[in-house]
Input
Amino acid sequence: VLDGRLSRGEPVPPTRELAATLGVSRNTVAVAYDRLVAEGFLDSRVGAGTFVNADSEGVYRPLPRTTLRARPVWGELTDPADPGAVEFDLRPGLPDARLFPHQAWRRSVARHPDDGRYGDPRGSIGARTAIAAHIATSRSVRATADDVVVTQGAQQALDLAGRVLLEPGDAIAVEDPGYPPARRLFASLGARVIPVPVDADGLVVSAIPADARAVYVTPSHQYPLGMPMTLARRVALVRWAEERDAAVIEDDYDSEFRFGGRAIEPLHSLDRIDGGGRVLYIGSFSSTLLPALRLGFLIAPASLATAARLAKQLTDRQCALPAQDALANFIDEGLFARHLRRMRIQYQARRECVLAILQRDFGEWLMPIRSVAGLHVAARLRGRTFEDTAVTQRLRAAGVAMTPLSPLYAGRKRAGLVIGYGAVDPAEISHALARLHEILAQ
Ligand SMILES: Cc1ncc(COP(=O)(O)O)c(C=O)c1O
Output
């Protein structure tokens, strides 16, 4: 009836006949007809039989065959392929979970019985105080607990920044090449995402479109190329934002691991020197602790603080308290600083291992890009003979996950490989790069 295959007023078979056709008892059919009559699908007339109800328009009107459609933007965003389980995972942004102090973390979680109530959407006061204290010393970011919003990783901080700043149709400039999850997120919020080229000094500030409402950057360790943004460029970017009344979203995702060179001031501190309040500073515990903990933070200028708190509340009310309490405990007790020191030594050795192998065995194919921080190095493929995506596909078949550089470009693409060393030890790096060598040699 709902499909319109039985039309209005049409008789349905007598109960005895349908029972025989279906091989069920007549009573079963009678009960079914009774229910259909009660629900208004059928109409029973004594002596005449049972008919499809002719009166109740709408009950059996054939439904138009439509399906629900997501907003068009979701059709334009592709799903980044997860490589699944691989023997050696050399993708960027992954720490070594094997070296995470799981026991100490679990003890920290267990120490804080949850009182079972909702809390401040910005996060627990303990976590916010600890984060503010930590970044004051490690990154010279001057902020109080009141300025911090604890988020589900950097990704949610980006989401909050976008929600607070961007109207649908607003332009946001992003680095090209750049971090796809940021680009895709801003697009999903209805923003116009404008790729702006990156050169050896970082984002080319003079190429930012005049109407950009915000700029998303990774100044300490450009994602994916790895070089820091020069001081001149950082100053120029903050000035640009002031002149244009625009915002700068600074993603400081893995600057905790720095191997030499002078500490690079975040844009956030340059902003404060000029008294601007233009920079939204974002940090993440994904590479310093574990991505699975989903812990990060946003520090917004005072003028955006209320909106950021409300956005967090409307998005998910607050982050889970046990993880925040554990984080606070970890930082306060010095366990976090100790873990960072240990991991810095590990990652430095891994990084040197990658660079040494690249220099020794890959000189004819790969040209590493100079960088001093983070959990990955990027290297350009020399010449035009290689498709980086074809290389990484073959690597994947050989049990190694690595990120090709070219898909991270929106404009003119350059081939290369982004080699993460966070989740693999030096022996594993040698095995994985030996497989890469075989593939390139072929
Ligand atoms: C540029 C960039 N930002 C942020 C992150 C961390 O994201 P999240 O904190 O959401 O895990 C990563 C991790 O790889 C990254 O590469």
User: Anything to note?
Assistant: The CA atoms of residues 220 and 255 lie 6 Å apart. Residues 92-93, 153-155, 179, 218, 223, 251, 253, 284, 286, 291, 296 surround pyridoxal-5'-phosphate (CB under 6 Å). The chain has a mean pLDDT of 92.
